[in-house]
Amino acid sequence: MDRYLVSTRWTYDGGLDAVDGSRLLHDALNEWRGIQLVGESQARAPGNAGQVARQNEAGSYITGVVSRVGDSVRVRAALYSTSGDSLVRERSVNLPLDLRGADSVFGRLADRLLFDDTVWSANGGRAGTRSLNARHAFAAGLTAVHNWQLPDADSAFRRAAAADEHFFQAHLWLAQVRFWQNQSAATWRSSAERAANGLAAMSVRDTLLAAALRLFERDEIPTACATWNALTRGRPSDFVGWYGLGNCLSHDYIVIRDPRSQSGWSFRASYHHALNAFQRAFDLLPSIHKALGAESYAAVRDLLKTNADDNRIGRALSPDTTTFIAHVSWIADTLGFVPYRTQDIEEGVNTGLAVHRQRELFHEIATAWVSAAPNSPEAHEALAVALELLQDPSALDEIARARALSSDAAQRIRLTVSEVWLRVRPVDLGWSVPLGWLFHRSSSPRWPNWVTWILLSVHRCPRSAVTRLRCAVCSTM
After folding, report:
1. Which of 54, 285, 381, 459 has the highest Cβ tally under 10 A?
2. Ranges of the chain with pLDDT below 50
3. How far is Cα 171 from Cα 158, in angstroms, rounded to an integer?
4. What are the start-end ranges of the H helices in 319-433?
């Protein structure tokens, strides 16, 4: 357990001795579970703060200065390691001359000295817990969300909630990441309800998030979406609100009667608005691209509806049991889905323009990722996939750039497979690799020798096209 000493020998400007900053900070630190404090009587032993801390087997010590700045009192405290007396961090806070709110101000100072994380700001100026273990786990969860490693975030928030059952923000984030992962409401309902029990201890933003999750779980989707939408208006730079809104709108499958629709029906929620929300979220958290690369960004392509056979399934409001299907289409310069009853499904819907526009949107998103992370192989891979969907030959340059940037062996193999796939296409080969075709292609100045060696190895590998390529790549690298 970490052990701290708060020096009793602080420096005070004239007339400010009454502040007694060392005692107030000692009391604030004493509220935390998971740390030990050297007693005030031992802290008064002769010697400088570092010497006294080492005598009492403390790993860290804190000194302070209290000064007057205008009509305020400034408290500056410094945290040192007893190993080499090295400065760890220095923080300051201000409080009024009459010392109103001193306990909460010193509580904030203690928090900023103990932790160098984003928890306080993420929780709207609240610690949320006084458990060291819960705090560290929660901070790890926020880092995992920032890196879009949602399973890791799930585990971290679960540990935080277990370490402090009254850490309502941990319950909220646990429910939220499970909602983001499209898990069954049964897996996050309890966490959402426990978060709702602590609304008085949460920020306005977290209160809205908790309300939105509970509304969604109770199938009050329009009100839930409106709550997330309100959050985006109040905090337009907050990824969480936009991503929640996109998920909410895209999961509203209810179809209602609409005399303006050519089928007489329309989806209650706009998928176009859902995509706008997702795009805004992707812009605000560019790191999300690293976790979406599976199967050539299949999840993103499915979300954006970049394939001609993409559709939406809908249902009427209960007790009506009518089901609907809608193909992707482009209506009044907007992505749209016109739902038809399953028994009346409209054949021959022209999806070409809509699919092309959605592929252009994927290209726009991938380009933004490359701009935000120019050295990310995942970002360049996403751009290569987007360019290939648009039949742009520069896709080869992007996949080669992604391969050059990658330092992970498994990733390089996968990117090499993708590059060979782009160069030869299964339709060109029939996967028999005729030598005449290969020699013709290999005479091109843009045809690398390593591709020839890989293709000459294909015949030794299993029959599945992608499996054969991967086997050939592995045998030649």
Report:
1. 381
2. 348, 426-443, 447, 450-451, 453, 455-456, 458-460, 462-477
3. 8
4. 352-372, 377-389, 395-405, 409-424, 426-429
Q: Start-end ranges of CATH 3.40.50.10070 in the chain? A: 2-114
CA 257 to chain centre: 37
Other C-beta atoms lying within 10 Å of the C-beta of residue 25: 23
What digits encode the pLDDT tens for the residues 343-352?
776 554 556 6
267 and 326 Cβ atoms separated by less than 8 Å: yes
CB 195, CB 172: distance < 8 Å: yes
Whether 162 and 155 have beta carbons less than 8 Å apart is answered as no
Which CATH code of 3.40.50.720, 3.40.50.10070, 3.40.50.2000, 3.30.70.270 fits the domain covering 2-114?
3.40.50.10070
Q: Count other C-beta atoms under 10 Å from residue 344's C-beta.
A: 11
Residues of the chain with CATH 1.25.40: 121-230
Q: Hey, what are 305's tokens?
A: 């509806």
The one-letter code for the residue type at 373 is A
Structure-token pair, residue 316 = 């009427």
Burial 392-402 (b: 16+ CB within 10 A, else e): eeebbebbbbb
* DSSP class per residue in 55-72: HTT-SEEEEEEEEEETTE
Indicate the SS3 state at residue 68. Answer: strand
Q: How far apart are CA 264 and CA 258, in angstroms?
A: 5
CA 372 vs. chain centroid, Å, equals: 15
